[in-house]
């Protein structure tokens, strides 16, 4: 049965500092490293072992994948990295503290920016501290200046359909190591969650989620590996 494993990166330095991160590249904290290793050990214990891997262009997801694979003695697996699995772009909020932003703009506005389906945060101005246009990893890529969940879905889903689903259908056990909102985009699609209900879905760090697919490549129920 084709199996998909989704894992959100372990705690990042800016998760710890409670800052909007988006496409900005930050490392894992010690806790994040421990979460990533624990995810790998859980996969080994439950014998849910990936055979091929996808991740984003962002260090926190790549490191989480590598740390988990190391626990499984599977650092040798093929890994495909693609910007379309990146976190949603947090626009002009990038780098700001979430609590300070609430104090300035109000809880409701910040909730809309963080969790509404289609309201993007204010755009990032070019040339600022967090402008990534000179970053070589994004050469030739039209970097967004902000993204709602809807816009994130518009780049995650075509990549899922064209590059990941066929690999899964060929019988591989696929792991995707990605981000809170790029994974919300995927889970919304796979679990058929409405635009309204997706606002309430949170994806914890370092907790593998499993989907098993039937012969027609329809996903079954979403389950946390720790509960299986
Ligand atoms: O980019 C970020 O700040 C986090 O990865 C996700 O943040 P959120 O829970 O505020 O959407």
How would you briefly describe this protein structure?
This is 2,3-bisphosphoglycerate-dependent phosphoglycerate mutase. This protein is an alpha/beta fold and 228 residues long. 36% of the residues lie in helices and 11% in strands.
Structure report:
This protein is of the alpha/beta class and 228 residues long. It has one domain (3-40, 52-146, 172-227): Phosphoglycerate mutase-like (Rossmann fold, 3-Layer(aba) Sandwich). The protein has 7 helices and 6 strands, in the order βααβαβαααβαββ. Helix 3 links the parallel strand 2 and strand 3. It is globular and about 50 Å long. The mean pLDDT is 97. Bound molecules: 3-phosphoglyceric acid. 3-phosphoglyceric acid binds next to helix 7. Catalyzes the interconversion of 2-phosphoglycerate and 3-phosphoglycerate. It comes from Pontixanthobacter aestiaquae. The record marks 179 as: Transition state stabilizer. It catalyses: (2R)-2-phosphoglycerate = (2R)-3-phosphoglycerate. Homodimer.
């Amino acid at each position: 049965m084709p199996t998909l494993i989704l894992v959100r990166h372990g705690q990042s330095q800016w998760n710890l500092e409670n800052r909007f991160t988006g496409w900005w590249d930050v490392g894992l904290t010690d806790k994040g490293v421990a979460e990533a290793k624990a995810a790998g050990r859980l996969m080994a214990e439950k014998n849910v072992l990936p055979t091929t891997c996808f991740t984003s262009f962002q260090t926190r997801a790549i490191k989480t994948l590598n740390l988990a694979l190391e626990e499984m003695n599977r650092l040798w697996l093929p890994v495909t990295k693609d910007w379309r699995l990146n976190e949603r772009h947090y626009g002009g909020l990038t780098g700001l503290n979430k609590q300070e932003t609430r104090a300035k703009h109000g809880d409701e506005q910040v909730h809309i920016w963080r969790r509404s389906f289609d309201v993007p945060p204010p755009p990032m101005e070019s040339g600022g501290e967090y402008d990534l246009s000179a970053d070589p990893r994004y050469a030739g890529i039209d970097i967004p200046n902000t993204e709602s969940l809807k816009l994130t879905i518009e780049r995650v889903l075509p990549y899922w359909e064209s590059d990941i689903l066929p690999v899964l259908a060929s019988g591989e056990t696929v792991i995707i190591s990605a981000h809170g909102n790029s994974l919300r985009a995927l889970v919304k699609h796979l679990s058929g969650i409405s635009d309204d209900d997706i606002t309430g879905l949170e994806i914890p760090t370092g907790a593998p989620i499993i989907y098993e697919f039937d012969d027609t490549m329809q996903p079954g129920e979403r389950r946390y590996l720790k509960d299986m």
